[in-house]
Each structure stands twice: as C-alpha cells, then as structure tokens.
Amino acid sequence: MHVKKNDLVMVTTGREKGKTGKILKVINKKNRVVVEKVNFIKRHQRPTGQLRQGGIIEKEGPIHVSNVMIMCGKCNRPVRIGRRFLEDGKKVRVCRKCGEVLDV
Ligand SMILES: [Zn+2]
Asked: Angle at CA 66, nearest 5°, toward 11 and 37?
C-alpha cells in the first residue's frame, strides 16, 4: 500500500473525483481505504442498548486504493510518490515532483 492512515489524499476517479480528505482507515486485505467525507453510503443501524437510536445513518464507505493519490502539501496537488532512505536508515515516502518528504 502506498498510503497510510492520516494521509491527505485526492480522489482521482469515479463519482467523488476531485474530493480531498484524510484517510481514516486502511483495509490492507482488500486494497481499500476509507477517506474522510468521501463515498458516503447509507447504512441501516439497529438500535443497540438505550443510547443509540436505530435508523439510517450515513457513513464513509471504502474505496479502492488505486482511486486515490497522495496530496503533496508543497505542490498543493496530487502527486506520485517515490521512496527514499534517510541518513538514519528510515524509509520515507517523498513527492516525486518536489522531493518533499511526506512521512512525518
Ligand atoms: Zn511536492
């Protein structure tokens, strides 16, 4: 996977094209990610206990990882990423356009 939780990404294809958001969840097995405020789906929720009301709730649904690209804060646009080793041997992801390190 080229993305991680909390990455800022842009949706590049499909109904939600052009939307940006933070990755809330990565589902490695299915190569899918859940992006904040993207791909809302309606879910039927059963009431549980006394606190929660049943009914229809809207929640972000997972989308395929190939439909998103990482946003580079410096370029302010979605970019391809490369990999680089830092001096201490740590592997980081970098923007292929400007070289900005995208891992913190
Ligand atoms: Zn960049």
From this structure: 35
